[in-house]
Amino acid sequence: MMKNTLKVVLLTSILPFAASAETELSPWYVGAGLGVNNYEPNCDQKTMKICGEDSPYAWDVFGGYMFSDNFGVELGYRDLGMAEWTDYNNKRNDAGARGMTAGLVAVVPFADGWSVSAEAGAMNYLLRNKKNYNTEYYSDSGIAPYIGAGIGYMVTENMKLQAKYRRYENLDDDAFKTLEMQSNYWGLELSYRFGAKAKPAPVAAAPVVAAAAAPTDSDNDGVMDDADRCPNTPANHKVDANGCSIYENVTEQHDLGGILFDNNSSVIKQASYAEIEKLANYLNRNPEHTVSIEGHASNVGSPAYNMTLSEKRAKAVANALSEKYGIDASRVQSVGYGVTRPIMEGSSAEANRQNRRIEAIVTSTEKRPVLK
């Protein structure tokens, strides 16, 4: 004899109250739930030597139809989980049942929102195992009758929570004559009934003799007119407690193009001064902007030498901006990156030509309204 307890999470069917003549609730409902299950016999099959640790989870989904306030029918699908044991050949075994169910349900209300229920039906079960341990194969199907009882509470007019007990009989492996099981389970279930209760006719309000004027918000910014210091703010602006637009500083970067150099040279080409002049004109038109002159080198020679060369190239352009075109030195920064940021990979003639360059990155800080 041996003990085989299967803990199963089981979603059992729920029987919501049927609609009365005063309501418009639909007779249809759906649900699901969780619970625990105990297979019997408890390890006293002749093939069982040692009980294993059973799978603790099972699940259930269902739907039903109420013919009246107290009587209905329900269909569902249940998985009762798996049991494990070791046989006398020291092989590990597992088996469990799942399948479609059909049953009749009865509901009796006894207090505000509370009811008791009873049910009877059958499960078209499939007995199977995973054969995780290269063990015996159990597989059969059949019809297992069940009965049940429960107590439930209407959480809302459509949703019901219920505690359930069910007893299954004849969950047997008739094909191999190895298992004869029954099942007891306890579960919690939640169901939803479609439709809504009929609403009572509205009662006419008594006439108001006098009413105080309601506060108004003319620009719909959430601040009443009597406290709004900034009327007519745009509808998409966030506002403070005084009804005024909230602003934030936004920083943006713009790449204004590059300047190329000869090989192993930090001398600015005459043709490049036209580009530097364009950059200077842009900075003069936007005095709040700053610029970072970034120097780069081709992948010829040592990395350390190229880093120094790129710094000289950046410094040459930065000096030209300040000394030749009058841009305040505080607005100009120079930095060298050597060969670390090529725009064209490799060391071909074209790659080297494009990588010997200066890039001007202009940064602007702009005050903008915060939008909703």
Which helices and strands occur, and which strands form pairs?
Blueprint: E1 24-40, E2 50-51, E3 59-66, E4 71-86, E5 92-111, E6 114-128, E7 140-154, E8 159-172, E9 180-196, E10 247-260, H1 273-285, E11 290-295, H2 303-324, E12 332-336, H3 349-355, E13 357-369
Parallel strand pairs: 11-12
Antiparallel strand pairs: 1-3, 1-9, 2-4, 3-4, 4-5, 5-6, 6-7, 7-8, 8-9, 10-13, 11-13
Report what the structure shows.
- Mean pLDDT is 81; it is low at 1-22.
- A hairpin with a 4-residue loop joins strand 3 (59-66) and strand 4 (71-86).
- The strands form 2 sheets. An 8-stranded antiparallel beta barrel has the order 1-3-4-5-6-7-8-9. It has a 4-stranded mixed beta sheet with strand order 10-13-11-12.
- Helices cover 11% and strands 44% of the residues.
- With 372 residues, it is mainly beta.
- The protein contains 3 helices and 13 strands.
